[in-house]
């Protein structure tokens, strides 16, 4: 995560603060899985998890998911795509009025636009 932030932010003070937030967050799980190209110590350096629940979570999710946003919009050509943190409604083949009526009733649920809000 720190490397992703450092790609866009160059201010050493901000990078230090980001490092403090990440390193002081919830304990990260060790990952003991080896992948092609790993050396003996790579799994010990690879941690799993992100700081969830602190005020910086939204910022970190935006940094982490920015490549996904560009892939969906630029490579897949989906114009009706929005994201807030980890909620990803995708609108395809519907009018602007229909898009405005669709609500997300629960995570990971697909709601056909003609249904309006799900019940």
Which stretches of 5+ consecutive residues score pLDDT under 50? none
| Approximate shape | extended
Taken in chain order, the helices and strands follow as: HHEHEHEEH
- Tell me the Rg in angstroms: 19 Å
Distance between the termini: 38 Å
Mean pLDDT: 74
Task: State the helicity in percent bands.
Answer: 40-55%
The major pleated sheet works out as:
2 strands, antiparallel
Could you give the order of strands across the largest sheet? 1-2
In terms of quaternary structure, the protein is single chain
The number of helical segments is 5
Count of domain modules: 1
Would you count the extended β strands for me? 4
The chain-level structural class is mainly alpha
Kindly estimate the percentage of residues that lie in beta strands according to DSSP: 5-15%
């Amino acid at each position: 995560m720190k490397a992703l932030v450092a790609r866009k932010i160059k201010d050493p003070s901000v990078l230090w603060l980001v490092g403090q937030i990440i390193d002081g967050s919830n304990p990260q799980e060790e990952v003991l899985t080896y992948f092609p190209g790993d050396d003996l110590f790579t799994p010990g350096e690879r941690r799993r998890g992100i700081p969830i629940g602190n005020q910086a979570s939204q910022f970190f999710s935006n940094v982490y998911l920015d490549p996904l946003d560009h892939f969906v919009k630029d490579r897949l050509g989906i114009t009706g795509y929005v994201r807030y943190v980890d909620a990803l409604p995708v609108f395809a083949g519907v009018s602007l009025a229909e898009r405005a009526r669709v609500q997300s009733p629960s995570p990971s649920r697909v709601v056909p636009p003609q249904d309006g809000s799900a019940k």
